[in-house]
């Protein structure tokens, strides 16, 4: 009986030591990154067309050349008189000017307007949410999008999320990471924890073990 109790005591001691080490590591990790800046959006941001977008092409006085077309997975579009044209990576004005240039071979002084009607955006600018979100996914970036907007879209946190240990990986700053307090924001309504996102941000929500 004493031998069994001794083995149990040693096992319990090892388990407590392991839990203490893990707790110390978790505390160190949570404070490892600086808080995310509240404002992050560049005021000169311009939407960039990406694969999967739908665009409406309007050619003034040429309704037969006006149409709505999808941007293919290779980033290109095709229209009457234009077999293939790379659309991905251009903003709508740049794309309109390129279409005018191509149509100018067949139409005199074409005037083109491009309107994006379905938004996906290039992969490099999408917001990705991974980890303990209710619905992890990639989202098209929108100007002035905040982390609260992102969390509403993905359905909030799971029951196992360590919300206050979440981080933003910011590709526009060379992969720099910032800490964000998602639990305080969502569960406690602390709006001071709300911060703006930037194109290409990855929101990482770790799992809680306590």
How is the CATH topology of the largest domain named? Outer membrane lipoprotein wza fold like
Rg (C-alpha, Å): 25 Å
State the CATH architecture of the largest domain. Answer: Roll
Q: Which spans have pLDDT < 50 for at least 5 consecutive residues?
A: 1-9, 11-30
Structural overview:
By secondary structure, the protein is an alpha+beta fold. It folds into 3 domains: 1-30; 35-44 and 123-205, Outer membrane lipoprotein wza domain like (Outer membrane lipoprotein wza fold like, Roll); 54-118, wza like domain (wza like fold). Helices cover 26% and strands 23% of the residues. The protein has 4 helices and 10 strands. The strands form 3 sheets. Strands 7-6-10-8-9 form a 5-stranded mixed beta sheet, with no helix packed on it. A hairpin with a 2-residue loop joins strand 3 and strand 4. The longest helix is centred in the N-terminal third of the chain and has 29 residues, at 2-30. It is elongated, with a radius of gyration of 25 Å. The model is unreliable at 1-9 and 11-30 (pLDDT under 50).
Question: Helices and strands in order, then pairings?
Answer:
Layout (H helix, E strand, L loop, with lengths): L1 H29 L23 E6 L7 E4 L5 E4 L2 E5 L5 H12 L8 E7 L8 E5 L5 E3 L7 H7 L12 E5 L5 E5 L1 H6 L14 E4 L5
Parallel strand pairs: 6-10
Antiparallel strand pairs: 1-2, 1-5, 3-4, 6-7, 8-9, 8-10
Essential attributes:
3 domains, five-stranded mixed β-sheet, alpha+beta, three-stranded antiparallel β-sheet, elongated, disordered N terminus, 4 helices, 210 residues, Outer membrane lipoprotein wza fold like, wza like fold
């Amino acid at each position: 009986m004493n031998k069994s109790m001794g083995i149990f005591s040693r096992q319990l001691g090892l388990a407590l030591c392991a839990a203490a080490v893990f707790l110390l590591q978790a505390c160190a990790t949570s404070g490892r990154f600086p808080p995310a800046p509240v404002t992050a959006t560049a005021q000169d941001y311009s939407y960039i067309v990406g694969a999967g977008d739908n665009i409406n092409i309007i050619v003034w006085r040429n309704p037969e050349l006006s149409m709505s077309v999808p941007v293919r997975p290779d980033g290109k579009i095709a229209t009457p008189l234009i077999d293939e044209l790379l659309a991905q990576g251009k903003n709508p004005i740049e794309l309109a000017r390129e279409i005018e240039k191509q149509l100018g071979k067949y139409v005199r002084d074409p005037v083109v307007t491009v309107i994006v009607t379905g938004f996906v955006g290039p992969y490099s600018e999408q917001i990705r949410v991974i980890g303990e979100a209710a619905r992890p996914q990639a989202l098209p970036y929108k100007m002035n999008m905040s982390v609260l907007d992102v969390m509403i879209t993905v359905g909030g946190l799971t029951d196992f999320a360590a919300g206050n240990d979440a981080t933003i990986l910011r590709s526009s700053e060379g992969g720099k990471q910032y800490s964000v307090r998602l639990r305080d924001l969502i569960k406690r309504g602390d709006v001071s924890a709300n911060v703006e996102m930037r194109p290409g941000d990855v929101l990482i929500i770790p799992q809680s073990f306590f």
